[in-house]
Amino acid sequence: MTPMTGHLAAALPGFLLALALSPLLLGIINKTKAFVGGRRGPPFFQLYYDIAKLFRKGAVYSGTTSWVFRAGPIVALASVLGALMIVPLAGKPALLSFGGDLILLAYFLGMMRLFIVLAALDTGSAFEGMGASREVQFSAMAEPALLLALVTLLHHSVGMSLSEVYGKAETSMLESVGPEVFLVAAALLVVFLSENSRIPVDDPDTHLELTMIHEVMVLDHGGPDFAMITYAAALKMWVLGALIVGIIVPVRSGSTILDLGAAVVGMFGLAFAVGLIESGMARLRMLRVPHLLSAAVVLAGLALILALE
């Protein structure tokens, strides 16, 4: 087996698991919220049904939109697939790994956001423009927290790529549990909630345009376009969740099945925790969201300071 073939064999299972199981995270979140609220709730696989149904429908385009509107969902899905190729799972190498790949990860996520925002602005809708403005503002505050957290992990690694950061517990900060680990995990959790438009930053279940952020940007998308956006959002949740699970569930037994199983259980546990968070608190006022994101930046910055000592 050549080195390239061995790398592909080690990285491909995690990538395929993400493609197959990422929509299930939304099902676990919704089922948890329904259980806490005393309701039956939608099936765990509801998002799979919705995506399949949307792909069978046609798309309607306004006469005011251009090619940007049609390219938005395609580029968004392609961008998040690129990000998924960089993020490792269960200590296994990612499909795409090189020194400083965390910068490309941020660029892929930024590209996804950019084309969703451009597609929203291309409709000429005041409501979608308002949601796009909020999306850009909050993401600009979340990205520093994400990069500072990843740089902190990079400082304790033997290499400069995310695969090396999350690869072996004995050569990373996961070996000795210090306060910076908890600070990084807390910062990444805030980024996870913000970037995936979850409570307390955004409420994905609301239908009031004045309070919506992500959902208001995709009001004019339908059919396969909306299916791609929905699937891309599920993959983005998996990508950011994998960064957290790699810290809090550092199982590196050497067995691919055991390590991947532990990582998947960790992802499902994270989705369950998000469901509990959304069941226990309301969405913050819009003016309070920057305070929460600033706190995430402070936590990540403090973790980096402790790591440098």
Q: Averaged pLDDT, please? A: 88
Q: Describe the biggest sheet?
A: none
Query: Low-confidence spans: pLDDT under 50, at least 5 residues?
Result: 169-174
| End-to-end C-alpha gap | 43 Å
Overall SS class? mainly alpha
Q: Overall 3D geometry?
A: globular
The share of residues in extended strands comes to under 5%
SSE sequence, one letter per element: HHHHHHHHHHH
Helix content: 55-70%
Instruction: Compute the number of helices.
Output: 11
Overall number of domains: 1
User: What is the radius of gyration?
Assistant: 19 Å
User: Care to count the β-strands?
Assistant: 0
Oligomer: single chain
Main features:
309 residues; mainly alpha; 68% helix; globular
